Amino acid sequence: MKVTLLWGASVLLVSNVLGQLVISGNENKIDLASGTPTVVQDAEPDSISLIDFSDFPPKVDHLYDIPNSVIGPPSNIAISPDGQLALISNSLKIDPADPSQYVPEAHVHVLDLSANPPRVKQVDAGLQPSGISISAGGSFALVANRAEGTISVLHIEGTDISLAQTVSVCSPEESVSDVAIHPDGTMALASVQQGSYLAVLGITERQVILSQRKISVYGKPYRVVITPDGEVGLTAGQGFGSAIDSDALTVIDLKSDPIRTVDYVPIGAVPESIEVSPNGKLIAAVMMSGSNLPAGDPNRTETGTVVLLSRKGTRVTLEQTLPVGPIPEGVAFTSDGDYLLVQSHPARAIWVFEVKRRRLKDTGLRIEVPGMPSSLRAAP
Fold it and tell me: Looking at residue 118, what is its pLDDT?
């Protein structure tokens, strides 16, 4: 695969193991600004941006010609616990038979962050690989394949990745979109978006088995996360209503036997992504809030929303709501928890907030990227 490296990125890659790396996936081939996914004719290549928060302002470099997509949850990037590699889903491509449409892809990019310059290779997955989760021990990863209804199990040995297992979760129409691995590596939660539930998977020595348990959630779950202490699962998705009705965060108690949903917390209209702070005490969610509606719609807005919530056990409390750029996609805390990043798809920029005392403060920094930012992940 051809990879174009912007000057300076090799310096970043040498330092990022000890630094605080955030990776943004930037797509150019599918635009959401019109209110519906539209293929961009003669688009520039997709890219990723490497953002190093070892210092502030962060150092930013870009790698070009690494395809990724806005179609799917913004969790289609994952960074290994040792910082040596990143996995990036390549979920869609332009249809060769009809350049105005897109069709599923079936592989994941493996970015070797220890190489200088970086090396990129591919590993097979299922149709339309989307949300990715790497185990806390770094020995395996799970990939949700939306167009296939399966989870791919990838074994990791250093920078060598291999497809070890494919687990059927649901029908392709039910769209398994994201997956989160418990910190102890014994179970995972998968969001079955169109089926409107979370599937529970058991894990034994990297063998994954689908259980019969289906967890009730609000709306259509999209991004799913598990807190660092392993006590709580969280997901959010859009309900049946219009883009102005408030949707909710679902809180799942993972310590109870059996595990169960225990709360719904209203957070705003059309949540796209959620993330938990490294200490597990804060949750951030981004909402479309009408910014994804077509021009002329009376409910269209020019800004999205970021919500900050605090957590104590299974109790989750709304703390703050702030405007961000339109069509916010990914959200991520830096690995020290001091900053929060929020992508804005049409603005081709990432908003940076300082996190202090359960409050967000806009730093005014906007990280410009060479594409429409569509996925975001910080190093654990």
Answer: 83
Alpha-carbon distance 189 to 348, whole Å? Answer: 31
In the structure encoding, which two tokens stand for residue 349, read together? Answer: 């920029």
CATH 2.130.10.10, applies to 4-378: yes
pLDDT score for 7: 37
pLDDT lower than 50: segments of the chain: 1-11, 13-18
How far is it, in rounded angstroms, from Cα 185 to Cα 139?
Answer: 10
Cα–Cα distance between 195 and 64 in angstroms, integer?
36
Give the model's pLDDT for residue 19. Answer: 58
| DSSP letter (8 states) at residue 82 | T
Q: CA angle at residue 284 from 320 to 26, to 5 degrees? A: 125
Alpha-carbon distance of 7 to 13, in angstroms, equals 12
Q: Domain residues of the chain, as ranges? A: 4-378
Q: 310, 312, 305: which is closest to 359 by C-alpha?
A: 310
> Which tokens sit at 369?
């990227």
Q: Decide: pTM greater than 0.85.
A: yes
Residue type, 32: L
Closest CA to 325 of 29, 32, 89: 32
Q: Cα–Cα distance between 370 and 311 in angstroms, integer?
A: 35
- Cβ partners under 8 Å of residue 340, min gap 6: 284, 306, 308, 331, 332, 333, 334, 352, 353, 355, 360
Residue 175, CB-side half-sphere exposure with 13 Å CA sphere? 14
Q: Per the structure block, which two tokens stand in for 346?
A: 């049409």
